[in-house]
Design goal:
Layout: E1 3-4, E2 10-11, H1 30-35, E3 40-44, E4 47-52, H2 56-65, E5 67-71, E6 77-81, H3 85-91, E7 105-107, E8 110-111, E9 117-119, E10 122-127, E11 130-134, H4 140-151, E12 156-158, E13 163-168, H5 172-180, E14 192-197, E15 200-205, E16 214-219, H6 225-236, E17 241-244, H7 248-253, H8 289-298, E18 302-310, E19 322-326, E20 329-340, E21 345-353, E22 362-367, E23 370-377, H9 387-390
Parallel strand pairs: 5-17
Antiparallel strand pairs: 1-2, 2-3, 3-4, 5-13, 6-11, 6-12, 7-10, 8-9, 10-11, 13-16, 14-15, 15-16, 18-21, 18-23, 19-20, 19-22, 20-21, 22-23
Length: 392
């Protein structure tokens, strides 16, 4: 039988079948990831996602020094097509999309009527009236289909046969050149290209959830997942490519959100310092516009901050929200925490009352192993201008 841990990760007993049941889908790369050493899986968007290929610290070093290939097929797509697709997508986000070109990608927030964040996906524009919303973990397909019923717009909402892989790390560009030739170097940050690889239909984008240089390869034929995985791994052998999983260490270093941890529908963009993704002066009456206008005027009562945690190196990411106190008063919570071997520090993202959000503020955090001192610091913790991700 599988060993299912408290944080919903299933560990493999390779002598037996294992899993969460048939209601959780397996990706086109599932068998390949097991073959290449995946030792644990979690569930994301109702699909298995690999969460371990051995030591997570080694996975981090593989990512930042060379390259890793990650099965992120659980990053499901909501496809919006039809004559009114652009108008429909604009109604779902406070970010101004009026200048978004065909072939471009944008990081967006999706808000509900109260201004709460429902998802923070990447939006891809494949054609004038063809969009993919590449999701974090939540049921936006159902939300979008429900909205479409009453939108009085000519759109079709579906989940296509699309399964992404992430190829991330400084040597990912070498692997991509081996696969697609030098012309792939022309692909700019947050842009996409339609390509084929040995007849396998793909969309390739210069995006990824790592804060490193990287690419996402969106497979458009799930029957060829195993073939695609093996082709990439073979091309990456001269460049030290390793199978891997999205790195909690690197994404927290980069201040990247994990939905349900650092944000949810009770969190608004202003609390996260994401004002740049809210354009209140656009003509479209997007969902949450009135609420966000009100919040902008009134201000917020809490803010996301970065923390150093003065304690022994954490053995892994937190699996519960840790209380933050000041003089015995509860003032916030740690949402994501991990030990960074590069920075030689425990680092964390936290949500705190605004009066405790000033840099240098000292707080007490109640971790799983006891209380510790925490200090509010700048975030992101490493490469704040994302020079690594942007440069190729």
């Amino acid at each position: 039988m599988p060993n299912v841990t408290a944080n919903n990760v299933v560990n493999i007993n390779k002598e037996d079948d294992f899993g969460f049941g048939t209601q959780v889908r397996k990706s086109p790369y599932f068998d390949a990831t097991v073959r290449w050493g995946a030792t644990a899986f979690s569930v994301y968007n109702h699909m298995y996602i690999p969460r371990a290929f051995g030591d997570p610290e080694q996975n981090f070093w593989n990512l930042v020094n060379d390259a890793i290939l990650c099965d992120v097929a659980a990053e499901r797509q909501v496809e919006v097509t039809g004559p009114d697709a652009a108008e429909f997508v604009q109604r779902m986000t406070p970010r101004d999309l009026s200048s978004m070109a065909v072939g471009q990608c944008k990081y967006i927030l999706m808000t509900n009527a109260e201004g709460g964040i429902l998802n923070d996906p990447i939006l891809l524009r494949l054609a004038e009236n063809h969009f993919w919303i590449s999701l974090a973990d939540s049921d936006i397909l159902l939300w979008a289909q429900g909205l479409a019923v009453y939108a009085e717009l000519d759109v079709t909402i579906s989940e296509p046969d699309v399964s992404p892989l992430q190829l991330q790390g400084p040597r990912s560009v070498d692997v991509m050149k081996a696969l697609f030739g030098d012309s792939i170097m022309d692909l700019r940050y947050f842009w996409l290209r339609e390509v084929e690889l040995n007849g396998i239909p793909l969309i390739v984008s210069r995006t990824g959830w790592s804060s490193e240089l990287g690419y996402e390869l969106y497979l458009r034929d799930g029957s060829r997942g195993d073939e695609l995985w093996e082709t990439i791994m073979a091309a990456g052998r001269p460049f030290a490519l390793q199978p891997g999983h999205t790195s909690s260490i690197r994404r927290i270093e980069g201040g990247m959100l994990s939905y349900h941890a650092d944000a949810d529908m009770s969190t608004n963009p202003y609390e996260l310092g994401m004002d740049r993704l809210v354009n209140l002066d656009i003509e479209t009456d997007f969902i949450g516009k009135a609420a966000l206008q009100r919040i902008q005027v009134q201000g917020v009562s809490r803010k996301q901050v970065g923390l150093w945690i003065d304690a022994a190196p954490l053995k892994g990411p937190n699996t519960t929200f840790w209380p933050l106190e000041c003089n015995g008063e509860l003032v916030g919570k740690v949402t994501s925490a991990v030990y960074s071997p590069r920075l030689e520090q425990n680092i964390a993202l936290a949500m705190v009352a605004v009066e405790y959000a000033e840099l240098g503020t000292e707080l007490e955090v109640r971790t799983a192993s006891g209380s510790a001192r925490a200090v509010v610091v700048e975030k992101p913790f490493f490469d704040p201008k994302k020079k690594l991700a942007i440069s190729a």
